[in-house]
Amino acid sequence: MSNTQKDLPIKIESTNLNNQDYIWQLEITPNRTSLQSQVKLMNPHLTQKALNLRALELAKKLTLDQLPQVTNDFKNKALNFDE
């Protein structure tokens, strides 16, 4: 499943590091039982490790209430979005 969710909260930050307008892609898997979500960086930047960590930090701050509601068919599937 490789869908980009457009209804996630938007967070824009700037940096003086040269990232060539790189877009980080993350996968968020919500778990309603534990009220937590798992975050996976799908395409880490090869040289900007600090920005990789920052993208993960931002995604981990999302609460389950901020994630789009999904139907029962997709409850256990991952949500993908671009950072």
List keywords for this structure.
single chain; 3-stranded antiparallel β-sheet; 1 helix; 3 strands; 20% strand
Task: Output the number of helix runs.
Answer: 1
What overall form do the CA principal axes indicate? elongated
The spatial strand order of the largest sheet comes to 2-1-3
Beta strands, count: 3
Uncertain stretches:
none
Rounded mean pLDDT score: 76
How many strands, which pairing sense, and closed or not: the largest β-sheet?
3 strands, antiparallel
Beta-strand proportion: 15-25%
Structural class by helix and strand composition: alpha+beta
CA radius of gyration: 13 Å
Helix content: 10-25%
Query: How far apart, in Å, are the first and last alpha carbons?
Result: 17 Å
Order of helical and strand elements: EEHE
